[in-house]
Amino acid sequence: MGAHNSVASRMIQNFPGITIWTCICHSLHLCASEACKSLPQRCEELTRSIYSFFSMSSKRNAQFVQFQEFCSTPIHKILHPSQTRWLSLQVVVSRLLEQWDALNLYFRNRILTERLLVVDNIYKSLNDPLIKLIFLFVDFILPNLTSLNSFFQSSNVVITQLHDKMVLTYKEILLLYMNAKYIQTTPIKDINPEKSDKFLPTSQIYLGIKIMQEMQKNSIFDNKALIVEFYSRVQIFLKISCLQIKKKYNFGDPVMPAIKLMDPKTALSIETRDE
Hints:
This protein is mostly helical.
């Protein structure tokens, strides 16, 4: 799909007026990858450290089961975080959050019985309120992209729904951190995700019930600096996500909105014909 000396460039040369799009699934992956770079490095390190700690030892896994049973946590294994598939991160994070209490108890016990640097680092990260908040945020926001990615990998013909799905997801993310009136009254191609004077105050940013509940804990509620850092990272993540989506998908292209007319139901409807 390169711009020079590629199949795409030759198609454009031989068929003037043709519309060529890159793989939307790959584009969504790149959007998630770029946005995840704004997250603290410690978050990724924690996912890899925990997986590595258990992956090579059946004894450790057997011991961990006892802590899972004590905490009434599902007996699930820790998942492997992929280095190349950022959209798989949500599944890994969701599993860690599910096992959080059992992991915390397990590594607290390990730190008392053996002095390993990796154990110490994992335990500190598990007790860092910012890291857990970031994990809860990732678990909240990434399904917006993963569900869209799964939809476009369907074996059914879904290209007629492409534009509407992209618009919906783009606006859903924008509305998390920007003024609703600005989003609803501005043509979608003209929305500027970096327009800071349209950013919501942190008190109006809603990121799900789990984060709201976590915020009520004394260790977080009384830590104003932590709250400021968390919301700052959230805004950066959301802003980068929207900038990347806008970069990868041309909302001003007149062709894509018209493709939905090719859907048989739409094409055969009397209302559409009248229009």
